[in-house]
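User: structure tokens for this one?
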Amino acid sequence: MLCDAGRLSQAARLSKETGELFENSDAEDSVVLAIESYQQAADLYEMEQQRSQASQCLVKVAELSSAALDPPEFLRAAELYDKLGKDCLDSNLLKYNAKGYFLQSVLCHLANQDSIAAEKAMSMYSSLDFTLRESREGKFADELIACVEGFDGEAFATACFEYDRISKLDPWKTTILLSVRKSVEGGEEGLDGDDDFDLR
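Assistant:
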């Protein structure tokens, strides 16, 4: 009704609030409904040129698609983080946030068990942001790609530990890295539910 009346900003706000309600619900299909609501909100905000609000909603879509959905949609999340990172590069105010989004995109490719796509993405991001390779995020991404391609679980854990010492791993990164590590080590027992992410 709000859309029909041309009140897109209000419709977007309601869609976002609906997404928050579904996200915090234990009901069946709540994650799917939360993703749909956040996506709708993002689309409406985009139509109103409210890019900051749209980006916030797309971040939620990417987070839920990769870390809460079962089975996860890593490729969708990777594409969203790709878009968010590139959008940041268009703004002098936001360009320093691009590295974080590019790292998240690479992590999603690795969680999707596609190190080739991760490497291609990293190459493209490096051509867009010349500071990426020397940044903490860029070096971490390169190390993880090398570990995955070499099936080196020990080096993978060391890379995560060193990164975590300086830039604390948030719950999303921990969840995704656990998923990547399982594929590196062939799904070792004892990793499921390891919220502390034992890196030693």
